[in-house]
Structure formats: C-alpha cells, structure tokens
Amino acid sequence: RASSIERGDRARRSSAARERRRGRSSRRARRRDARARREARGASDARITRSERRLRGSDAGRSRARGMPAIRLFGRHWLLSSDDLPLPMAGLMTVHTLWCVIILVVYERAHRTLRQNCAGGEHAMAWFYATFSCYFVALCVEAILLHLSLRGRILEPEKRRLVPYFLYAHLFLLSVDIAFTILGTVVDAELSACMDRARVRGMVLSIIIGNFIVIGVHFCGIMLMFSMFGHLPSDQKWYKIFNIIATVLCIRRRERTEDPEVDRQLAEQGTLGHVANCFAEVFQGADVVPSDIAAGMGLLAIQHRHMIENEPLGKPLATDSDALAPYKSLNAMYEDAAHYSRWALAAYGWALFAWADPRSGIGMACSSEACMSCCGCRKCLRKSQDHRDPHDLNREALKKCAGIASDDLFYVSMANGIGEPPYFIARDVRRKAVVLSVRGTLSIADCVTDSMYKPCMLNADAIHEPGLQGSDLHVHSGVFRATNFILSDLNANRILEQTILGEQPSAESAPLPSSAVDCRDWDLVLTGHSLGAGVAAALSLHLRKKFPNLKVWCIEPPGGVLSPKLSNITKAWTYSTVHHCDLFCRLSGPVLLKLRSDMMDSLTNAKLNKFSLMMRMTFNGTKLQISDVLDPESAASESTALREDFRTFSRAQVDSTPMMAAPLHPPGQLIHLLRLPNGSYAPRLVEAHELMDRGMMIQYGFFADHFPDKVAAVLSDLAAGSTEASQSITSMGTSTADSTRTLVDRLVNRQTSQ
C-alpha cells in the first residue's frame, strides 16, 4: 500500500510538472505570436516611431537652446508667456497702491489711540508696519514685472529672461501676504473695540476682506495657467487632455483586442485618440501659449480682411450665361441650391429644426404624442388625435423641414457611430427625383470621423476610374469609412434599385410604401451638409454608373475630401456652396500646416508687443492696416531664428508623416457666397485649388458661417432675389410680412409656391 501511495504521489507530481511546462510553453507561444504580430505591422511603424523620437528630441533641444515663448517655472512649462503679465500686474499694482493708502490713513487716525488706550495696540501697529512693507515691496516687484513684460516683441523672450526670477519673488511675497492677512484677521478680532473707537475698523476690514479676494484670484489664475501635462511630449499631452474630456462626457472606452501591445496603445490614446492625434500634429513644434495663438489669429484676421476686400477669388456670377450646366439661368440654379439646402438641414432631425425654428421645435417636443412616447402618460394618449404611430421627433422634424408627407419618406437610418452617419431617402415629387440626404456633424462620433483627416485610397475599379492610381485616388479617411457604411446599407436594403430601377423586392430588402412605384426612372439627387456633403460626393463616385442622371448638391462640404483629380471629375454632376469665410470648407491637412506657418510668420513680423497689439485690436480692430502692426523688414534676429527652427521642425514632421500634407480638395464646382462689407452677397464661381491655396480665412463669424440654417437662409434669399434686376441681396432681405415667419416656414412656403 505504501509503495502504491508513493507511485500515485509521483504520478501526480509529474502530471503537475507537465502541466506547468505546457503552461510555460503556451505563454511563450502567445508571447511569440504577439511579437510576430507587432513585427508584422511593418518597418514603417518603426520608422515613424524613430522619426517621432527625432522630432521630440529636436523640439526639446530647441527649447533648451533658446528661450521659447512659454514661460518655465518650477521645472515645467506653463500656459502663459513672459509678455502676458502687463494687465494682471497693472491690476495688482492698483490694488496694492490702494491698500497702502488705506493703511497710511489708518495709521494717521489710530496710532495714538492704539498705543495709549488699547492693550495689545503694539501688536496692531506691528501688523500695520509689516503689512505696509509687504504691500510696498510687492508693489515694487509688480512694477518691475510690468516693465520687463513690456520689453521686446512677441517672439523675443530673451529680452524678458528675468521675468521668471521676479515671479519667484512675487510668489514668495504672496505667501507672506497670506500669513499677514490671517494674522490681521486675528488682530481685528482681538482689538475690534479699540478700532471702533478710532473709527478705522471698516477700513481694516476692507483691507482684510479685499486681500482674501485678491489671494483667491491669485490661486484661480495659477490654476488656469497651470499646464497639467506640460512635462509630456505633445502627442501624449493631447491624449491625456482628451481622455479627461471623454471621461467627463461619459464616452465608453474602446473594446479590447487580443494583442496586449495594441491594448496598451488604445488605453494610452483613449476613446478620442483620433481627435487628440489631430491636435497633437497641428500644434506640435510651435511652443506657443493661448495668448500667442490669439495674437497670431488677430494679425492674420487683419491680413485676411484686406485680402477678401481687395483680392476676391474666382469670377462673379452676374448673368444667366454664367449659370452652371445644365441650368439655363441663375434663378433655376439658386432655387435648386435653396431647395436641397433644406433637405440637407432636414437630415439633422429635431435638434437643428428646433435651432432654426424654436417655436415649432419646442411645440413639437411638448406635444401630447411626445409626452406619451417619453413617459407613457395615458391621459396624453387619450388626448392625442392620432394613435397610429408612436411619436418620433426626428421623423416629424425631418418631414416638416423637407416639406414632405409620410408617404414620401422611404427610409430613415438613425444609426450613428464613428464612420456611421444617419441618412434618409425620400421622394421629391415636384422635381421628380429620389433624394438621399446624409447628416453632417452633430455627435462626438461624427467629430471623431471628421478628425480622421489623413487620406486613404479608393478602389479605382469600384468608382469606374481604372486609369487613376496612387495619390489620384486619395479620399478623406473618415468620409471613406462613412461612404462604405452607407453603401453596404444600400446594398442590403436595395431601396434605390427598387424605387428608380424598378427592381423586384426580395426577402432581404427593406419594405417600401406603395408610393415608391411611381418613382420609376426618376433622377437621383444626393445632398448633405458638412460631413454629409463630403460623404454624398464620395458616394456619387460609386453610384453614378448605375444611376447616370445622378446629381449632387453639397452644402458647405469639408475642404479636404477628394484628391484634386477626383474633385475635378465630380464637376460634371456636383455643385458645392461655400458661405463666405466658412472655416470647415477650407479645412484640410495642408491648410492647417499653412495656417500654422502663417501664424508664426505674423508673430515674427509683428512690430508691437503683445499688450499694445491686443489693445489696438480690441478698440480699433476694424480700422487697423497691415502696416500698423506688421513690418517684415524690421523683424528681430531672435524672432527669425525661432521661426527658422520652427520651419526646420515642420519640414521634418512632414517628411516623417507625409500624409499630413497630402492635398485634398472640396468636390465639384464651387459657388462662393461672398459677403460684401455692406452685408450683401455676390456669388462667385471659384476653383477648388484657388480656395485651398489661399487657405483659411480668419474673420469674425468664420465658424458661424458654417451653420446650415444660415446657409439655407442666404440661398433662399438669393433664389427669391435672382428674379429681380440685382443679383446681390442681403441675407435678411425679406419683406415685412415675411419677416414675422420662421426660417422653416419661409422655406416650406417657398417650395409650395414653386
């Protein structure tokens, strides 16, 4: 029995040892597989990583070699520069001067009473002396900081190299000030009766309470200027910032993969990694602070204003002979533009409908059907006159904005994710067309899709252009992903084939209303606003062979959508509108690089310090001339050296990631809605390469120019005014009777009258 027990123990031990060896071998095999997958990702990733290290090393080396604008305190960069201090120092000087005057008045009134008639009066007098000395020394330090911060131009930090040392002194005085303020609170509590007799307690309390407020403002300023991730490289810093934003917005994390290395990278980049990477690449290399960016944008705005007024792009659309084919007149072209801008607005559903028409939008949300759908209220259900379908705000707003009935709406996709935009398909009875409208950017997922700006390649056979290859097939990666999503959905549901080509429905195809049979051989129109416009243009490249009568109206498309070759090809069936200085219609990788370079040039050539420049732009901005603020001939040597460092870095960055600078253009023929100084509009025909070569136009309202309701209003007024003698009308040029109606009412009524 003993021997059998021993044999059993040995067998169990050997079995356990075999299991351990198998576990170790399986772990080694998994590690080998993971290592092989990492190596299989290619030497290109390694080259990019080495390039990024070189970029970071050169960036850090330049920061050590020369003092960059961002100020460095306690071993880290902060979100302010040495020339950001004039205004706060002037404010502190005013406050401390007032405190010193009050202390002198208190001393004159109360020093005899406190010394002769109050026990502990000597302590109060000592506090007055110490506090006055602290405020006076702080006043002197602030005056020195004010003087130093006004020295030199924006990119001449060497002239302000002593500022950090005096800031250390000022912070030390702040800590002393906090101690004296707390001590003053104790002294006031003990000697309140004596100070009341001397009639100075109110002034002492004003100093103490006011100083607590000043100390609080100090700490708020320190918190705002503190760069939490200032010690990290640019890419990691932006990943951390957008990780915090994703956490605040409760955005769910990415799903894990089987590769631990990929999981580590995804955890580092976060849910908004694409957006963070975009910001990191654009702002990397320029060690500037927010105030420098504001000053640079202000300088660019002055230059761009003169450029818009004196050097307009393209040729004017003045007569009917200038109308784009196949339109015979400008009136017909503007009517179609206004018409399909409303369909592009309708794709946004209730959110943008309520923005454009708050009265109808809020009324729709507060209706009895909405209450029933939201909370299941039976009383509201009994009050409702129509019990057939549950209330759907987006569908109702869509139909109201597009001016269509329920039978006209064939299909609505509300799915929304990264590269998955909502869209709808409906019939346009008056123009005998089936319209597919794609929604633009409205959600966080859409923003991530927008940020995927580096191009990828289309399949030449899929778009029926076998002669194209290489960079001629480039398309915005986010648009490419969204296009594939809609194409797969259309192929699964076969809606366009059933309605226009008369294809018989199958078991897998989507059900259609009976009205769809009347759409045989109708035209197909694709439209959308912003991201939706770019997707509509890319979608047309795949559908134009099957639907030869296809037409695309892109309302404010993104600037970087298609390669120059593809953009030129789409001119045959695509029309795009660009509203004045719309930021997003000019947005692409090369344009962002140009904007960054132009901003550095403007900061280098500025002939004023930042404080003087900001004051002039604040109080006299619209009257400033370029010569008032810029002088390229007198640029300081330090500024030009910093600019050359930045240019060297920028060239190395583009060499390491060439897709950043890949040229992409907006699609089709561009109708530029140029706004004149008097508020009127003069449409012009602009070439895509002209628009992108000029780059972004920094002007007041360049962000609001992108809003779909504003563009729809301008196009609607152009359509109404094109029948008159003048072709330039104001965007608010409506009659008195029409001005009381909302934008949506005017658009829908105009369609009805047509």
What's the topology here?
Blueprint: H1 2-40, H2 43-65, E1 70-73, E2 76-81, H3 86-117, H4 121-149, H5 163-190, H6 192-197, H7 201-225, H8 234-248, H9 260-269, H10 273-283, H11 290-310, E3 315-316, H12 330-346, H13 350-356, H14 358-365, H15 368-375, H16 378-383, H17 393-402, E4 409-413, E5 423-428, E6 433-438, H18 444-451, E7 455-457, E8 474-476, H19 477-493, H20 495-500, E9 523-529, H21 531-543, E10 551-555, H22 564-569, E11 574-579, H23 589-605, H24 610-620, H25 626-629, H26 637-656, E12 669-675, E13 680-686, H27 688-694, H28 708-721, E14 729-730, H29 736-739, H30 743-753
Parallel strand pairs: 6-9, 9-10, 10-11, 11-12
Antiparallel strand pairs: 1-2, 3-13, 4-5, 5-6, 7-8, 12-13, 13-14
Helix pairs in contact: 2-26, 3-4, 3-7, 4-5, 5-7, 8-10, 10-18, 11-23, 12-17, 12-28, 13-14, 13-17, 18-19, 19-21, 23-26
